[in-house]
Amino acid sequence: MTEAALEATGVHVTLGGQQIVRGVDLLVPSGQVLALLGANGSGKSTLVRSLLGVVPLAAGQVRLLGAPLGPRVPWDRVGYVPQRMAAGGGVPTTALEVVVSGTLHGRRLVPPRDRRARARAALEELGVGDLQDRRVQELSGGQQQRVLIARALVRRPRLLVLDEPTSGIDLPTQEAFVSTVARLRDEGTTVVVILHEIGPFAPLIDRTVVLRHGRVVHDGDPVHARAEHGGAGHDHTHPHADPATPQDGPDLTLGVAP
Ligand SMILES: Nc1ncnc2c1ncn2[C@@H]1O[C@H](COP(=O)(O)OP(=O)(O)OP(=O)(O)O)[C@@H](O)[C@H]1O
C-alpha cells in the first residue's frame, strides 16, 4: 500500500473561542493532487495551517510524510505557500534572499552550497528570474506571490501545500505554474491546493474536498461548481461568505465531473 503523505484524524481547531474546524478526517496518499474548496470563511486556510502545525489542534492527530506532527516530520521536504503574506515579512530583503530562505529549516540552519543556483532556477521557473535582486517590498502582489511559490519549490518538496497560489497572478503565469505543479506531480510530489476557482488546475486534480463550516461536505471525485461560478468566463470577484448559522445541506451546488 502507498504510504499516506498526509493523514489527519478527528481534527478540531478553535480560534478566538470559535470552533473553526470540526472533526476533519483526511487521508492523502502519496502522489495525489487534492483541491480543497469551500466558501469564504469555511475554514480552508485554518485547516491547512493546523495540518502544518502553524495553529494548534484542539483535538485530533496529524501525520505528515510518515511522522507525527512535530520535530520528526521531514520539514525540509514540506513546501507551504501561505495566502496573502508579505513576502519579506516587513524586513528589507531581495527576492533571491527570500527564496534562499526556503532552503533552511529547523535542522538545517546553514544553507546548502548550491542555494543561490537553486533559488535562481526556482525564480526562473516562475518567470521572475529578472527580479532576483529587487526588494520584495517593491514588487506587485502577484510578483510577491511568485517569489513565495519559488521559496516553496526550492525545497524540492515531497508534500506541497498551496493556499490560493494563483490569486493575483495573470492567466499565462497561472498556466506556467500549473505546468510546474504537473511536473512535480509526475515526480511523485503530493499536492494539497486551496482554490477559489479550479481554473487551469482542472486537469491536474485527482480529488476534491469541500469544506463547509469547518466540516467536510464532499470528498471524492473532482467537482465543478454550478456553471455560473465554474464557467471559464465567470469573473469570480464577489465574496461567497459562509452563512453565520450552520444549515443542513451543501452551500455549493456540486456536480460530479464526467
Ligand atoms: N486567528 C483567528 N482568530 C479568530 N478567528 C479566526 C482566526 N483566523 C481565522 N479565523 C476565522 O475562522 C474562520 C475561517 O477562516 P479561514 O481563513 O480558515 O477560512 P477560509 O475558508 O480559508 O476563507 P477564505 O476563502 O476567505 O480564505 C473565519 O470565520 C475567520 O474569521
TrEMBL record:
Compositionally biased spans, kind Basic and acidic residues: 221-241
Region (Disordered): 221-258
Domain ABC transporter: 6-238
One Gene Ontology MF term: ATP hydrolysis activity
UniProt keyword terms in alphabetical order: ATP-binding, Hydrolase, Nucleotide-binding, Transport
Group of enzyme by EC: hydrolase
Residues spanning the membrane: none
EC nos: 3.6.3.-
InterPro entries recorded: AAA+_ATPase, ABC_transporter-like_ATP-bd, ABC_transporter-like_CS, Metal_Ion_Import_ABC, P-loop_NTPase
Family label: Belongs to the ABC transporter superfamily.
Record PANTHER family: METAL TRANSPORT SYSTEM ATP-BINDING PROTEIN TM_0124-RELATED
Protein name: ABC transporter
Organism: Cellulomonas oligotrophica
Organism lineage string: Bacteria, Bacillati, Actinomycetota, Actinomycetes, Micrococcales
